[in-house]
Amino acid sequence: MFEKLAEIICNYVEINPSDIKPESRFMEDLRFTSFDFMSMLGELEDELDVEIDQQEAAGIRTVQEAVDYLEKLTA
């Protein structure tokens, strides 16, 4: 799941996938805007065929938190 998410992150920000770490924060480290983040969530919903709760997503700060959340949805 981490590799898949890293691949999708690269669609939104200019970053090398190898520079994305589990502790990377979307806003501070990866330079996501709120729009980027919401767009990425929409793509993840389509790619993984899941429904992401916007309230829960608002609490996601790091890549690992996103991975944990997505793994819970796809389990």
Q: How is this structure best summarized?
A:
The protein is mainly α and 75 residues long.
Structural write-up:
The radius of gyration is 11 Å and the shape is globular. It contains 4 helices and no strands. The protein starts with a helix and ends with a helix. The mean pLDDT is 96. With 75 residues, it is mainly alpha-helical.
What's the structural blueprint in terms of helices and strands?
Layout lengths: L1 H8 L24 H15 L5 H5 L4 H12 L1
| Strand proportion | under 5%
- Main beta sheet: none
Quantity of strands, as a count: 0
- The percentage helix is 40-55%
Enumerate the spans where pLDDT stays under 50 for 5 or more consecutive residues.
none
**Structural class designation:** mainly alpha
* Average predicted confidence as pLDDT: 96
Q: Please tell me how large the radius of gyration is.
A: 11 Å
Can you tell me the overall shape? globular
**Helix count?**
4
**H-E order:** HHHH
Distance between the termini: 11 Å
Defining traits:
mainly alpha
